[in-house]
Structures are given as C-alpha cells and as structure tokens.
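Sequence only, no structure available. Ideas?
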Amino acid sequence: MNMNLKIARIKELIDRLENSQTVTNRSLARVLTAEQIKALEDEWLEERASRKVVKPKAIVKYESLVRTAILLNGRMERMCHLKSPHHKIKEMAHKADSAFEQAIEFITEAIQNDGQLRAWIDRDVSEATCDPIGIPRVIGSSSFECQNKSKYPFLALTKRYLKLGALNAALDELQASPFESEEKVDVFIKRPQKTHNFEEFRF
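Reply:
I predicted one. Tokens follow.
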C-alpha cells in the first residue's frame, strides 16, 4: 500500500471511530506496523489490569451501613402503611435516622483521614441528608438514587480511545518529517495519568 493510500485509509478509520463505528483488528493491521499493533495490545492489557481495583475496607463498611439504614427506613414506611401503633412507628423512625447519621458520620471521618476515598462517593458528603434519597452512595451503585454510575474512581480509557491514539500517532508519523515524526509520536502516545475523575471518557 503506497503512502497516500495508507494515509487516506487511516483517516477513514479515524473518522469511523470518531463516529462510534466499529474498526476491526484486521483493518488496523492493514495500516499499522507490527510494532504499532503490539504497542496497542500492550496498552489495552495495561488498561484492563489497572481496572482491577479492590474497594477500600472503609467503602465496603460504608455500603453496609447505608444498607442497614435504608432497611430500617423501609420497615418504618411499611409500619406506616399498615397503620401500626404510633409509638412503634416513632421508635423505628428514630432507629432509621440514627443509622443514617452513623453512616454519614463514618464516611465523613473516613474521607477526612484518607482524601482518596472521596473518589468512591457520588456526591459531596457535606450535603448529605438522613434519608434514602439524600444519603451519599458509592459510585456504580445499582440504586436509582446513585448520581454517578462510573465503575471506577478514575478515568477509564476505552479500547476505541486507544485505537484512535494508535491511528493518530501513525498518521502523524507518515505526514511528518523524520525528526518531527519522532517528536510528535513521543508526545502523543504518552499514556494519560489516571486521576480521580467521575466522568468516563466517551466517543
């Protein structure tokens, strides 16, 4: 494949990826070198390995405290529906409120001791309220009230993103002079550092 045709083909693949269309490994192999394909595969393996994050013990305990508080609140609501004695409803409401307060106090103190735990919570704990809607949730929770459905407490790179990076680097290399090519590729393929960001990269 001559250079002009390869450049046109790479641009076409980039356009397809940017429009959320599929680009197969076979298509990539036609325009990327074996070394570039190997680098892309290594990058994806590294990305997948980085996602094997274990929830901190404090977050696991907080989830348990939240579940307990919501369970007690649910019992109180059922008692109201069944028109249970007022003093029984009041007693259960007090237990639920106390459980919510305990959960909020726990996560607030945990974050004060370890600021990185903040990335696991879907909202500012200072705005928490003692009810199922206002209690902060751990990110990725299946609860409807969870405000952040991200699976990871950091930016997750998609395979589409990595493919785009490889194709753009290859395009820069073909279009630039040898000296410029080396400089541009070194800059472009530098792996983004993961930060505690709630928004996933999407195309």
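The CA atoms of residues 69 and 98 lie 8 Å apart.
Hope that gets you unstuck.
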